[in-house]
Design goal:
The protein is α/β, with parallel strands linked by helices and 299 residues long. Helices cover 22% and strands 37% of the residues. The longest helix has 11 residues.
């Protein structure tokens, strides 16, 4: 998987307004682009839901060279059950720590110059209290695994990630390049529970490698959730993706890099589009008027 790069992690969100506050005002990320969809994604980007949904990409800079968060919002779902699969995203920003303290966002000191903050929905973010670097502040994403050796083999031997640091008993830190966001696998010594909030980590590779990747996974009897498929975004580039699952069923998206670079161009109106969508979202009002509650994907 030469020339692969880490792109983003997908989070399902039930409260778009509180979530926007956390990423924009606490972490200090920018809205890179916002897109609305009338029906579910062919590659289940929004989870196993068929209705209207939105995608908001947030990060510290352009997706060409910054790791982003993809926030997927299903209009009819108000909450999700968190599992033990996603263990946290670590970023370096003393400004984010200051923002959290100023806004009264709960912070827990968990180490020297290290704080834990939770995004709405319970997703963990570890904030390193040091000056934000000139390059991407996002350092790593940590995922739980049940068998560290088996998972390391999958990610390194099959997907081509380089092992950077290794603690045979507990963790392995990996990456496609030293300058990119890293993946940390943490052995929890038990079953990985994905809940209903399960996310997805995304990488890009040259388009011509997608078919080879699918063929390799078929040959190795590994799980392919979505075979090579084209995904359309209204008014933007069409991308091709393959969706895989690792030994613990963590979802992994590989997308053709050339088209994704076109699709992921920063949209100057992204912030306004998100605010407009939130202002026009009357789903809470509708459910209250009909004496109903939004669906809870807690089970």
């Amino acid at each position: 998987m030469a020339l692969s790069r880490a792109l983003h992690f997908v989070f399902k969100v039930g409260d778009r307004s509180k979530t926007a506050t956390f990423y924009r005002d606490v972490l200090g990320m920018k809205i890179l682009r916002h897109e609305e969809f009338e029906e579910g994604c062919k590659a289940t980007c929004n989870g196993p839901y068929d209705g209207k949904w939105s995608k908001t990409m947030v990060g510290f800079g352009p997706e060409d060279d910054h790791f982003a968060a993809e926030l997927t919002y299903n209009y009819g779902v108000g909450e999700y059950r968190l599992g033990n699969d996603f263990l946290g995203l670590t970023l370096q920003s003393s400004q984010a720590v200051s923002n959290a303290k100023r806004l009264g966002w709960p912070l827990t000191e968990v180490g020297k110059a290290l704080y834990l903050a939770e995004a709405p929905g319970g997703y963990r973010f570890y904030l390193v209290d040091k000056e934000q670097p000139p390059n991407d502040p996002v350092q790593k994403v940590c995922l739980a695994v049940s068998d560290l050796q088996k998972s390391t083999h999958y990610w390194s031997s099959l997907l081509g990630m380089k092992v950077i640091e290794r603690d045979e008993e507990k963790t392995v830190l990996m990456g496609f390049a030293d300058t990119q966001c890293k993946l940390e696998l943490h052995n929890i010594g038990g079953t990985v529970d994905h809940g209903t909030a399960f996310g997805r980590i995304a990488f890009s590779c040259p388009r011509e490698q997608l078919a080879d990747l699918e063929a390799l996974m078929t040959k190795e009897n590994q799980k392919i959730l979505t075979p090579l498929v084209s995904l359309d975004t209204p008014g933007k580039a069409t991308v091709e993706v393959v969706i895989l699952a690792d030994p613990d069923a963590h979802e992994i998206c590989f997308v053709g890099d050339e088209a994704f670079r076109q699709l992921s161009q920063m949209d100057p109106s992204g912030n306004a589009l998100l605010d407009k969508a939130m202002a026009e979202d009357k789903s809470d009002v509708w459910f209250a008027k009909h004496n109903k509650q939004k669906a809870s994907a807690k089970v």
